[in-house]
Write a sequence for this structure.
């Protein structure tokens, strides 16, 4: 879209009282002086532009100098609509507290108004306190009160107690908005939106029963206990007790699907960490040598400098870091191995130049480290997917877990004895969780239009062969879950023809909808 400025453009006038006389520039080719034309004062509030529309035609627009809105400005429209916009152009913003009243190009607060409003001032002040994590005593700071009084002589001052009361009112208002949104949302999802509903103090004891009562009370306050599908927790024993007791409470109200068969889902990132940690127990001395080598280099500034000299000798990038791992976090071990592999030649030079350095891996050990790093790289990529904060959707898990299982099977049947023993240990732990949770993960990926049921069918053929019982269980569970969900949540939306047909017909109908 092409834009060019227009200056001194005359327009037709609707309101003669809203005009000033403007003398037109003389034409040097003519000696006669033309009559003066009228020009509206409202034009001072706008910049006039020529914009090429999609058809390539030139269209005259007026751009407001305050809110930058574009308005038709051809002479045939007159200036009445421009004057009305100027009168009503008030830069207000009434977004909710979640957006913190932010606006403008630089994220600044929009506070300009045609008149001062004490209510709006206090709302902006409380929002600023929340946004910048300021103490409530901020409203009593003498310096800021001086700034406020400079802007307006009789600006109202409030105490920290008043600020606290206003903040509670603002919180309650926003809470009511979310409650209304949850109440109006059918089913058990909120259009993939993420909302932090509650931060609540949990007094002791922190056992499973106390946790269950606390969480149930919070859900009852929000009136969403009937909208739960599953909870995700790690493997702490108190969490297992919490889930069992919590599930009994919800089943007593008959609000869980399939009596809570899919209610407790383990944290997949935590499970993956346990699986890889199990495999790292079988790791040979090579990884320990790398760990000791990194510790040695980072042990003193003199050693660091000597190592950097070795890095320069072998023409490696000195700006790349050497990572030290935390043994309880396997992904840090992977990153340590990756960085050490890059500097393997530097470590060899350090061994020659520093007689105190005794932990350099041999060539065969470096080769084993390279194989191990490549193997762990698959699980590291999966962990990055699981740890994403922008897309915490269940449909991402099945493809990643399926890839992990294929990798384990490949190494379990490989020729390298060390990698095979490691994969066997990991596979045994992996199967324990796969058998319990692969079914619901498969259903989630079926509902993803990029995969549908074809991907799950192909995956199970890879794992179990054609016409496997495992894949039949997935289809049966999918159909059963759909029927119960439809009956319990919104039976009025389900076709009576589907509800009156047998299981096979219902399953076929659902399958057709999924495959379309």
């Amino acid at each position: 879209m092409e834009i060019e400025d227009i200056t001194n453009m005359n327009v037709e006038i609707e309101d003669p009282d809203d005009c000033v006389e403007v003398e037109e520039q003389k034409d040097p080719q003519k000696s006669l002086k033309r009559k003066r034309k009228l020009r509206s004062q409202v034009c001072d509030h706008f910049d006039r532009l020529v914009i090429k529309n999609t058809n390539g035609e030139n269209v005259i627009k007026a751009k407001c100098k305050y809110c930058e809105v574009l308005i038709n400005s051809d002479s045939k429209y007159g200036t009445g609509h421009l004057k009305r916009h100027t009168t009503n152009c008030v830069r207000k913003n009434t977004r909710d507290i979640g957006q913190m009243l932010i606006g403008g190009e630089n994220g600044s607060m929009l506070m300009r108004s045609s008149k001062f409003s004490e209510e709006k001032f206090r709302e902006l002040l409380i929002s600023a306190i929340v946004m910048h994590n300021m103490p409530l005593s901020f409203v009593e700071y003498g310096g800021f009160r001086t700034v406020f009084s400079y802007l307006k002589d009789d600006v109202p001052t409030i105490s920290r107690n008043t600020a606290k009361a206003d903040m509670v009112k603002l919180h309650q208002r926003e809470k009511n908005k979310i409650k209304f949104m949850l109440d109006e949302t059918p089913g058990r999802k909120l259009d993939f939106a993420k909302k932090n509903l509650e931060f609540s103090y949990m007094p002791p004891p922190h056992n499973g029963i106390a946790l269950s009562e606390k969480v149930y009370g919070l859900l009852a306050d929000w009136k969403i206990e009937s909208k739960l599908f599953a909870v995700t927790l790690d493997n702490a024993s108190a969490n297992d007790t919490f889930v069992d007791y919590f599930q009994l409470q919800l089943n007593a109200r008959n609000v869980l699907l399939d009596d809570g068969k899919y209610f407790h889902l383990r944290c997949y990132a935590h499970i993956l960490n346990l699986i890889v940690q199990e495999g790292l127990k079988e790791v040979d001395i090579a990884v320990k040598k790398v760990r000791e080598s990194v510790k040695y280099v980072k042990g003193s500034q003199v050693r660091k400098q000597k190592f950097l000299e070795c890095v320069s000798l072998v023409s490696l990038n000195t700006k790349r870091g050497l990572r030290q791992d935390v043994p309880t976090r396997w992904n840090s071990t992977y990153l340590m191995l990756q960085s050490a592999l890059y500097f393997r030649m530097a470590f060899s030079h350090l061994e020659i130049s520093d007689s105190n350095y005794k932990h350099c891996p041999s060539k065969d050990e470096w080769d084993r480290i390279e194989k191990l790093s490549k193997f762990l790289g698959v699980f590291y990529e999966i962990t990055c997917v699981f740890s994403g904060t922008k897309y915490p959707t269940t449909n991402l898990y099945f493809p990643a877990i399926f890839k992990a299982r294929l990798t384990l099977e490949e190494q379990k049947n490989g020729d390298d004895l060390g990698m095979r023993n490691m994969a066997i240990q990991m596979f045994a732990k992996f199967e324990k969780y796969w058998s319990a949770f692969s079914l619901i993960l498969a259903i989630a990926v079926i509902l993803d239009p990029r995969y549908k049921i074809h991907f799950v069918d192909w995956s199970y053929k890879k794992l179990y062969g054609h016409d496997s019982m495992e894949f039949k269980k997935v289809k049966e569970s999918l159909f059963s879950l759909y029927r119960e969900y439809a009956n319990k949540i919104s039976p009025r939306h389900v076709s009576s023809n589907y509800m009156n047909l047998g299981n096979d017909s219902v399953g076929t109908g659902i399958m057709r909808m999924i495959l379309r």
User: Anything to note?
Assistant: The first strand starts at residue 3 and ends at 6. The radius of gyration is 34 Å.
